[in-house]
């Protein structure tokens, strides 16, 4: 087995990321429990290409095991999707991706948006220090972010979009890590 590491996603990663994300988010397809989508997370590979510059991937040699998307705006780092292939979930790879994204961004705070029905992943973010900031009906979020095709395929009206926030303690201490590659096995 090869050591795992986090690096920036590159164009040749698009196919692997596209399939990995749809496989990992398949659990959201449906209209009860933690499911709330009427289709796949990414409907087109162009959606992956559009965000490739904002993505980090967790690799095991040439295989991508996980991906995280983060973008920086006005001192805030918005963590978008985070996905780990189902065969590799529960191994700490999601936490490694979050650590890499949080370490690399010089943001004063981080935000994560989740569907309120995703009770399975909310504790993951709370354990990392994220606190609920606001909860908005999903219909209101569709109006705010009309370009996000994925959220237009919501199959339920009884859910909200919940925003979680975390202050960046690294930024407050003045310590920064500008590295482009993070060894995911480092403790």
Automatic annotation (TrEMBL):
Q: Which species is this record about? A: Tigriopus californicus (Marine copepod)
- The residues forming the signal peptide are none
The record lists the lineage as:
Eukaryota, Metazoa, Ecdysozoa, Arthropoda, Crustacea
Query: Where's the N-acetyltransferase domain?
Result: 5-146
Lineage top rank: taxon: Eukaryota
Q: What molecular function terms (GO) are annotated for this protein?
A: acyltransferase activity, transferring groups other than amino-acyl groups
Listed name of the protein: N-acetyltransferase domain-containing protein
PROSITE patterns recorded: GNAT
């Amino acid at each position: 087995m090869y050591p795992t590491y986090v690096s920036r996603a590159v164009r040749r990663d698009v196919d692997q990321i596209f399939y990995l994300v749809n496989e990992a988010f398949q659990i959201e397809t449906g209209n009860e429990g933690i499911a709330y989508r009427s289709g796949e997370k990414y409907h087109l590979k162009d959606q992956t290409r559009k965000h490739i510059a904002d993505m980090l991937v967790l690799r095991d040699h040439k295989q991508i095991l996980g991906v995280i998307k983060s973008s920086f705006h006005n001192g805030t780092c918005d963590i978008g999707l985070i996905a780990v292939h189902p065969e590799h979930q529960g191994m700490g790879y999601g936490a490694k991706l979050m650590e890499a994204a949080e370490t690399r961004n010089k943001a004063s705070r981080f935000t994560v948006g989740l569907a309120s029905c995703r009770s399975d992943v909310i504790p993951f973010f709370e354990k990392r220090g994220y606190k609920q900031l606001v909860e908005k009906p999903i219909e209101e979020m569709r109006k705010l972010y009309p370009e996000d095709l994925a959220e237009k395929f919501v199959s339920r009206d009884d859910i909200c979009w919940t925003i979680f926030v975390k202050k960046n303690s690294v930024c407050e201490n003045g310590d920064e890590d500008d590295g482009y590659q993070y060894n995911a096995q480092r403790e």
